Amino acid sequence: MSGISRAAAIVGAAEANEIGYPEEPKTSLQLHIEAIKNVSDQTGIPISDIEGIFSAGWSSELAEHLGLHPKYIDTTSVGGCSFEMHVHHALAAIHAGIIDIAVVSHGENGWSRRRIGAGGGGNYSGGGAGSPATEMSMSYGLSGAPSNYSHAMVRHNHRFGTTPEDFAHVAVVTREWAGLNPRAVMHSADTHEFGGPITVEAVQNARLISWPLTLLHVCLVTDHGGAVIVARPEIARSLRTNPVWIAGAAENMSHSNIMEMEDFTSTSAFASSKTAYEMAGLGPKDMEMAMIYDSFTVTAAMTAEMLGLAPRGEGYKLWKNGDAAPGGRFPINTNGGGLSFNHSGMYGMQLLVESYRQLSGTAEDGINGIKGKQTNARTCIVNGTGGSLSTTGTLVLVAD
Amino acid sequence: MLPRCRECSRVHWYPRYICPTCHSTDIEWMEGSGKGTLYTYAVQNRAFGGWAEDAPFVTAYIDLAEGDRMVTVLRGVDPNKPEEIEIGCAVTVEFEEASEDIHIPFWRVAGSES
Known about the structure:
The complex is a heterodimer of chains A (400) and B (114).
Chain A: E1 9-15, H1 28-43, E2 52-55, H2 59-66, E3 72-74, H3 82-95, E4 101-109, H4 112-115, H5 132-138, H6 145-160, H7 164-178, H8 200-205, E5 208-210, E6 213-214, E7 223-231, H9 233-236, E8 244-253, H10 269-280, E9 289-292, H11 297-306, H12 317-320, H13 337-341, H14 348-360, E10 379-386, E11 391-399
Parallel strand pairs in A: 2-3, 2-4, 9-10
Antiparallel strand pairs in A: 1-7, 1-8, 4-7, 5-6, 8-11, 10-11
Helix pairs in contact in A: 7-11
Chain B: E1 2-5, E2 27-30, E3 35-44, E4 57-64, E5 69-75, E6 90-97, E7 103-109
Parallel strand pairs in B: 5-7
Antiparallel strand pairs in B: 1-2, 3-4, 3-6, 4-5, 6-7
């Protein structure tokens, strides 16, 4: 355990008033601001006390909107894992004595944007125009995340003898968790015409997006706003909310464009989790639950291997044998995941909000959960994945 | 043609301003063998822009005989029978003229009919 471990805590986590598929289209800024207001109300920390602002590209806009003059401004935007990295950076800034209180904020109208005709979700800007690698992929008809992640599943199948059906269990179990979260888009037939429990057969028989990935191997595209406050220990202990300690934090990347990924079955989560575990003085066996980015079924299962939670090639078994399910030995993605709860394009904030709720004992606070959703976990490994299996941010969180 | 570093002799793809291995900027173009093996593949069941009407088609990552990897649309395979495609199989390059100045490389399973 190093000196930076537990130098700050997440002291609150909140979401925008309406997430998922709102009746009226939302702007990304609105989703940000609602979440920041809600986390301020939850913790009792006035917005004016925020000294550092962390977001995926929005920080100056947010600070202006809030009338803040922050001492620390971070706009790291490397895909869905950016928010785990923001917590890492906030921990470092607090440990260094530069700031005492930081907000990490997310607002993304992945759903509303489509309704107002502004294109799909994922305002990840890695590569982009002018990147030779991006231009090269696009010219061969590859577009969007599913078109690339399918290649990773095929390689995993080849190398380890796994099958698409093995990965379908991730979708089935994650849907079970969504059934315990009334805010999950796929909670039930009342929340979505295709909501409610699903089977492996249903996953496999769904429409093909990019073989072997069917629609139900792929995450949702929704609206989401979320914010967490990170504060130094003296402040964390003085609040009405329960602190969740940042015991370990780290980040890494293997590539930006997937054509530069050396092994399509191995991500930088191996490296980022190793560093995070070392900082925490804890290992995979000390973890009691996990929040793992599930842009696709294959992302979650492969990442579980990288985090040391399962042997290489066997990540899917955590879901298939029921360990990851409600009531199982090792709960994973207890909010219903990007697959069935909410995925706005970047999903790292949803991971943070849920891991805070679980470890602070507020998962069944009446808004976000119903009986059975709160686990007994006291430790949680959180891993965000950004880009095309490109970038990773890992946190080891510990209950007070 | 492939970019090769004159300092460390490593071939890299895509073309860069600097060698990603040894960071020399002394890079030359050399003629490749046109041979490679299939690293992984998938089917694009839907696509956008100019490719939309071609779906489904097979995309693939090719390990070049010279080293490093290239993305392509794979030819000589049936997108409706993707299970029959063999990872590790030999592939060869062929060029399609996009304009007088631009020829786009595509890869084909070695020995398959065009």
